[in-house]
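Researcher: We're teaching a course module on how sequence relates to structure. For the next exercise, students receive a sequence and then see the predicted structure as tokens, so they can try to spot secondary structure elements on their own. Here is the exercise chain.
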Amino acid sequence: MCPVGWPVTWHDWLNKKKVKEVPLMSKMSELDAAIAELRKCGETLIGVSDTLRELFSSGEPEKAAEAPTPAAETKPAAKQLTLEEVRKVLAQKSVEGHTSQVQFLIRKYGADKLSQVDPAHYAALLREAEVL
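Model: And here is the predicted structure for the students to work with:
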């Protein structure tokens, strides 16, 4: 039994307090939107961290191999793209929110990470990445 003056039902309490009842579906859709946004942010962070790991995982031997030799500098005919140039463009695309597309492009060229892509495919990879 309720003491005198206490509301008996939920609706009595709402009416007494003059609180506006919010539909449950409205709150659920807001919660769903918030969860979707959190997931999107999480996926973006994962993509950025993967790109950063890939950027900084390359060791010194790779950089030494990419260092231009005096003979290569005398041939300005066809400039060969370097891993660092491609990595810079793909990292920017990833920051812009195209991480999944960048990962797809890398896999399209038969690699799990950029350093495994054949240098002969760098130009084609960049052409496709610039469209993103």
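Model: If you want an answer key for the exercise: The chain has a mean pLDDT of 77. The chain has six helices and no strands.
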